């Protein structure tokens, strides 16, 4: 009898189907505006309450499918140690680039049914992002920070992932990542508080929302973006962010997140990162982990 071989991609898309909607694409790069957006069922009024489900997959098989795109193996680490056997989660990806290049969330999106909000400052990257992530909750072209202000975007001449905000970058960082770029070459734009972006993209205004995972890599602007969140309304399961070259900035990150209910992980995923987990992480995902153990036992 002939046997039909179902590819991993097909199997996972059946087990963890993508949402039926298309992503809302917000171009807030020049002038932020209010927008109506979809309100995923079950999100409103929740805090530290995941909508993820348990599922069965093999991380090595994900590598075979070529969907692990992180620069330093962060996605493999996350899916092995923290979100193993978890599908249909939600993420916030700051510095999403084109949604594929060095992405910490691409495997989650492509085969595991996760969806989220992608924020990318570079207009060219953003055009690719909306093509690569059509089924995410929202793709937003904007600079994010702690408060509304005028800033300058510096595109990298050598790497599509290294553009950033001039004002938030040190002299050494500018010379390393933007050689030959001066303020004259930058693009004036509006910097918007991250909370305002979330209010527009997932109808978060006045409500509590939970993201299972946040990936933050915005070339020195990480601390400013974190200060722009209302932690009484927005919470995360795990936050992964690029380590700053300035130790004082990293201490500020630690003090802020520690005060908001997150503990630092001493061995983060990726050598150039900081990682913080919700103090209730194990409680939040205990049921899913038990269900996943049962799924594995049934194979």
UniProtKB/TrEMBL annotation:
Entry keywords, A to Z: Signal
An annotated GO cellular component: Golgi apparatus
One GO term (biological process): endosomal transport
Gene3D superfamilies noted in UniProt: Vaccinia Virus protein VP39
InterPro entries: EGF_Rcpt_Signaling_Reg, FkbM_mtfrase, SAM-dependent_MTases_sf
Keyword Signal: yes
Source organism superkingdom: Eukaryota
A Pfam family it matches: Methyltransf_21
Signal peptide: 1-22
Domain Methyltransferase FkbM: 93-262
Identification of the protein by name: Methyltransferase FkbM domain-containing protein
Species for this entry: Thalassiosira oceanica (Marine diatom)
């Amino acid at each position: 009898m002939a046997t039909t071989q179902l590819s991993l991609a097909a199997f996972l898309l059946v087990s963890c189907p993508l949402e039926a909607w298309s992503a809302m694409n917000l171009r807030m790069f020049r002038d932020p505006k209010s927008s109506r957006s979809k309100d995923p069922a079950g999100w409103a009024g929740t805090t530290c309450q995941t909508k993820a489900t348990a599922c069965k997959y093999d991380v090595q098989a994900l590598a075979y499918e070529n969907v692990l795109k992180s620069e330093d193996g962060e996605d493999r680490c996350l899916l092995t140690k923290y979100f193993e056997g978890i599908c249909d989660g939600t993420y916030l990806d700051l510095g999403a680039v084109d949604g594929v290049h060095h992405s910490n969330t691409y495997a989650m999106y492509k085969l595991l049914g996760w969806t989220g909000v992608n924020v990318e400052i570079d207009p060219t990257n953003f055009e690719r992002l909306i093509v690569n992530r059509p089924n995410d909750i929202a793709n937003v072209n904007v600079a994010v920070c702690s408060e509304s202000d005028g800033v300058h975007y510096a595109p990298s001449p050598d790497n599509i992932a290294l553009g950033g905000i001039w004002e938030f970058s040190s002299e050494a960082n500018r010379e390393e990542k933007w050689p030959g770029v001066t303020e004259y070459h930058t693009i004036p734009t509006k910097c918007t508080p991250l909370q305002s972006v979330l209010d527009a993209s997932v109808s978060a205004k006045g409500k509590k929302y939970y993201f299972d995972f946040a990936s933050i890599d915005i070339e020195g602007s990480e601390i400013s973006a974190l200060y722009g969140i209302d932690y009484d309304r927005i919470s995360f399961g795990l936050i992964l962010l690029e380590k700053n070259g300035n130790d004082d900035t990293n201490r500020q990150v630690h003090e802020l997140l520690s005060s908001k209910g997150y503990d630092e992980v001493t061995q983060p995923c990726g050598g150039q990162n900081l990682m913080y987990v919700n103090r209730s992480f194990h409680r939040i995902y205990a049921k899913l982990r038990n269900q996943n153990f049962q799924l594995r036992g049934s194979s």
